Amino acid sequence: MDITALKIKNTSDKDLLVYLTLGSYPEGHVQDVNGIFGISSDNPLQGSFTLTPNEKLEYTCPAELALSGNFAFGTPPLNCPTDQFPDGINLFEFTLNNAKTGTGEQETVDISCVAGANCLVRASLAGGGKWNASPLHPDVAEFENSEVYDNHGRVGVYPYGCDGCTEIKSPPECPDHPAYALPQEHPICNVQRPAEDAGGFVFVEFVEYFG
Q1: Sheet holding 201-209: strands in order across?
Q2: So what's the pLDDT on residue 33?
Q3: Residue 1 confidence (pLDDT)
Q4: Angle in degrees, CA 135, 1, 104, rounded to 5
Q5: What angle do CA 163, 191, 161 make, to 5 degrees?
Q6: 203 — phi, psi (to 5°)?
Q7: Domains in the chain: ranges and CATH
Q8: Can you tell me the distance from the alpha carbon of 87 to that of 32, in angstroms, rounded to the nearest whole number?
Q9: Interatomic CA distance for residues 209 and 19, integer angstroms
Q10: Three-class SS string for 145-175?
Q11: In contact, 115 and 168? CB cutoff 8 Å
């Protein structure tokens, strides 16, 4: 079975700080960020690295392990806006190479603006089986987010506060948060494919910070 590679590139003209956070799973998943993209960290589930302008890195996980986690840009993941990021931050989330973790598993990728949006992120998908975002979008090859209130209708994106994609269930509890965005009309937030169809790559590009 082929393995899906994870690529990341800084397309901006400034150095970029990227945080990688792995999901905590009992077995079958990569559980140490050290060595991934050159990370050295005391916390095995989270670390950071810097991409220079136009630098691109690639990681392919061991064949027997799945890779699940997220990228955050300029900061570790945050639930609430800060003075530095008044519109909160978005994450690029991924679960890859998980065919061996169960039956009927799906590789999934998305951009989560549930806690806001601080930057423009673009994803390109190639190789392996086709990716889809529900039957409405049976062949997804690229998607991106926009600013915090401009993600309704965008494939692969959870709008602000919309932790259920088509509904707001239990959003982050933040003091004095602005109004949440409109949920998607259809379940298009996750881009997925059967995990047995793994292969090719997921290419994440940081384009720019908003504001």
Answers
A1: 56-59, 5-10, 201-209, 119-126, 142-144
A2: 98
A3: 73
A4: 40
A5: 15
A6: -115, 115
A7: 5-209 (2.60.110)
A8: 30
A9: 15
A10: CCCCCCCCCCCCEECCCCCCCCCCCCCCCCC
A11: no
Beta strands, E only, the chain: 5-10, 16-22, 46-51, 56-59, 67-73, 91-96, 106-112, 119-126, 142-144, 157-158, 191-194, 201-209
Q: 3-class DSSP state for residue 111?
A: strand
CA 43 to mean position of chain CA atoms? 20
Which stretches of the chain drop beneath a pLDDT of 50?
A: none
Q: What is the pTM of this model?
A: 0.98
The phi and psi torsions of 36 (rounded to 5 degrees) equal -75, 125
* Distance of alpha carbon 116 from alpha carbon 160, whole angstroms: 5
Q: Are 99 and 105 in contact (CB under 8 A)?
A: yes
Count of H helices and E strands in the chain?
0, 12
